[in-house]
Amino acid sequence: SETYSYVKRDEKYKKLTEQDIEHFRAILGKKGSLITDEVPSDLDFYNEDWMRKYKGQSKLVLKPTTTEQVSQIIKYCSEQNLAVCPQGGNTGLVGGSIPVFDEIILSVANLNKIRSFDDVSGILKCDAGVILENADNYIKDNGNYIFPLDLGAKGSCHVGGVVATNAGGLRLLRYGSLHGSVLGLEVVLPNGEILDSMHSLRKDNTGYDLKQLFIGSEGTIGIITGVSILCPPRPNAFHVSFLGVESYEMVQKVFQKAKNELGEILSAFEFMDKKSLQLTKSHISSPEPLEDEYPFYVLIETSGSNAEHDSAKLETFLSSAFEEELVLDGTVSSNESEAKNLWSWREMIPESSAAGGGVYKYDVSLPLKDLYSLVDAVNEKLEAAGLSSITDESKPVISAIGYGHVGDGNLHLNVAVRTYTKDVENCLEPFVYEFVSGKKGSVSAEHGLGFQKKNYIGYSKSDQEIKMIKQLKNIYDPKGILNPYKYV
Ligand code: FAD
Ligand code: 2HG
Ligand code: ZN
C-alpha cells in the first residue's frame, strides 16, 4: 500500500511454510488458537489497526493460552528467522500492534487469567491479556481497589498492552506513570527464554530495575505475559465538573487554582477546544453538558473518601472560580450516570475525530504555556495551503482540534480529514515534529512511536540516546525478529 512505499520487506526473514504452521499447531494443540488464511476475513481484525489506517498482510495469528506456549513459539521463530508482531487488544494508535508485511501475529488475548489479588497490599498479578476493564472490575469486587490507570479504550485494551506502551490515560495526574506502579513482569525474551520477574515488592534496589526496560518497549524486546501491579484503594466518592472557559490562558489559570484548592482530591484535569466538542456532538447522542458554546472546556474530576467533604470543597472552588471570572459556565455531576455522561464528552473525542473519513493523530508533550499554540499553528498552516474547511467538502481537511491531559502537559492534536492525501501529510510532517522539537517537547507523550513515528524519534532523543536504544535492541533481539520495521 501507499503507506508502506518507503519500507521493503527484509528478505532475511523466512516466509511461512506449511511445516511451520504444523509445528505451531502441535505447540498450541487447542482448536481455535491458530488462525490461518483459510478464511481470509478471519485475519482482518488482527491485520488492521483501530483507526483502520494501517494494514498488515499476515497469514497467521497465534493465540497461545500459556506462557510456556509463548516461549516455545518464540524459540522456534528465533531458530527459523520468522518475524513476529506481538499484539494485545489492538487499540494502539501508532500502527505498532499490526504487522507491516507477513510477520506472524502473536496475540496474547487468550492469556487472560487473574493470577492473584492481595486485598491487604493491593497487589494484582495477572496474565498480560486480561482486558483492563475486567482487571478493574475484579479488584473493585474483591476489596474495593482501583486500577491505577484509566483510558477510553479500557473495554478492549489489555493490561499487558498498556504496560507495553506505557499508556498514560486520564488519571496519571493522581496515580502517576506505570513506571511507578508496575512491580514486576513476566516476559518471554526474543530467544524464547522466560524472564520471571513477577515481583511484588514496593522497594527493591538489588541491581538494575530490569522490568522498566519493557515498560513502553512496544513489543520490540520481549513479549509481556504477566504483570504484577500495585493498585490503590478505590475512592468512595467521584465528582465530575464540566466548565466553559474563555481562552487557553484561562484553562491554565483554572488548572493552577484547581491544584491549589482541590489539592489531594483532584484526580483528573482534562481540556478540549470548541471544535473537539462540535465534532463529538455530531457523533454521540448523550445530553450536552452546557447550553452555550465556549472557546474551551475543562473537565475536572475529584475523588476521595468522603463525598460530603469533596463536594463542599469542589463547590467552594467553583464558586470562587466564577467570582474571579476564570470560568464562564459549568455543571457538576450529582450521580454516577451524570459523571459518566460528562466523561463521555471527553472520552469519545478520539473516535469522533475520525468519523468524518480519517484522522492524523499527534500526541505530544509541550511546556504548558505552549500547549495549545501547536493547534493554532497547524490550523493556520492548513488554511494557508488551502487544504482545510469545515463546510467545503472539496477540501481534504475538516479541522485540526486540540484536547488532552493538561495536568500532564500532554496535548492531543487530531487533524480530522475527509480523506488521506499526500498534500495534507506533507503539510503536517515534519512541521508538527519540528514545532515540538523547537519547544523541547516530546513527539510521543503517551502512544509510543510504533510505525507512524519510526522516522521521527530523532526529534525527541539525541544520537547518543538512539545509539543506546539500538544497542539494547541488539543485545536482546540480535536477530531482530520482534516487531520489525517499527521504531527500532
Ligand atoms: P496493542 O494496541 O495491541 O499494542 C500496542 C503496542 O504494544 C504494540 O506495539 C504491540 O506490539 C505491543 N504489545 C501489546 N501487547 C503486548 C505484550 N503483551 N507484550 C509485548 N508487546 C505488546 N493511550 C494512552 O496512553 N492514554 C489514553 O488516554 C489513551 N486513550 C485511548 C483511547 C482510545 C479510544 C484508544 C483507541 C486508544 C487509546 N490509547 C491511549 C492508546 C493506547 O496505546 C492503547 O489503548 C493501549 O495502551 C494499548 O493496549 P492494547 O492492549 O490495545 O495494545
Ligand atoms: C486520549 O487521551 C487518548 O483520549 C487518545 O490518548 C488521543 O486519539 C487521540 O489522539
Ligand atoms: Zn491521551
The order of strands across the largest sheet is 13-10-12-11-15-16-14
Count of folded domains: 4
> Do you know the CATH architecture of the largest domain?
2-Layer Sandwich
Count of alpha/pi helices? 17
What shape does the CA trace take?
globular
| Small molecules held by this entry | flavin-adenine dinucleotide, (2R)-2-hydroxypentanedioic acid, zinc ion
Strand content: 15-25%
Annotated CATH topology of the largest domain: Uridine Diphospho-n-acetylenolpyruvylglucosamine Reductase, domain 3
Q: How many extended strands?
A: 16
Structural class: alpha+beta
Mean pLDDT, to the nearest integer, reads 96
What characterizes the major β-sheet? 7 strands, antiparallel
Instruction: State the helicity in percent bands.
Output: 25-40%
So what's the CATH class of the largest domain? Alpha Beta
Radius of gyration: 23 Å
Q: What distance lies between the first and last C-alpha atoms, to the nearest angstrom?
A: 22 Å
Unreliable spans are none
Subcellular location: Mitochondrion
InterPro entries: FAD-bd_oxidored_4_C (IPR004113), FAD-bd_PCMH (IPR016166), FAD-bd_PCMH-like_sf (IPR036318), FAD-bd_PCMH_sub1 (IPR016167), FAD-bd_PCMH_sub2 (IPR016169), FAD-linked_Oxase-like_C (IPR016164), FAD-oxidored/transferase_4 (IPR051264), Oxid_FAD_bind_N (IPR006094)
GO cellular component, one term: mitochondrion
Keywords: FAD, Flavoprotein, Metal-binding, Mitochondrion, Oxidoreductase, Transit peptide, Zinc
